[in-house]
């Protein structure tokens, strides 16, 4: 007998339509300034991977909760945050997220400290959790377990994962209905 695990969430990169607008003017109203990432390693939110040396990237201000609220009718009020994200400078340089990325929560949860903030369907915060996993723990499924724990609360509609030190938005996990 085979047991199939269905994740209660799906990880999402920044949507292509949103990226198109952010590449013109970010959520702080600023015009992005593309630059060559000589060393590589920037966490790209358009394709959910790290940049490679020589890729052109832009650091833009992004308000993920505001955009989610606009699409769902939620009212996050004071929890609406704007933070920095790296994206490919041009759409044609971005391959998009890899197939199966919707269930790749280990991405971005190992290494530095991360905060996972859970929100209800109305956009109100339900709490946060500080996480720091080794690459081995993340690869062994600990990242999936951390996110699944947040979604065990039936009030949780989405979880934002951010880097603690710089406040960068890493990705959003949304409840699968």
Detailed description of the structure:
The chain has helices at residues 16-22, 64-72, 135-139, 142-151, and strands spanning 9-12, 35-37, 43-44, 49-50, 55-62, 83-88, 114-119, 125-131, 158-163, 169-175. It is built from 4 helices and 10 strands. It has a 5-stranded antiparallel beta sheet. A 3-stranded antiparallel beta sheet has the order 2-5-6, with no helix packed on it. Strand 7 and strand 8 (125-131) form a beta hairpin. It is of the alpha+beta class. Helix content is 18%, strand content 29%. The radius of gyration is 16 Å and the shape is globular. The mean pLDDT is 86.
Summary?
With 177 residues, this protein is α+β, with helices and mostly antiparallel strands. The protein has helices at residues 16-22, 64-72, 135-139, 142-151; strands at residues 9-12, 35-37, 43-44, 49-50, 55-62, 83-88, 114-119, 125-131, 158-163, 169-175. It is built from 4 helices and 10 strands.
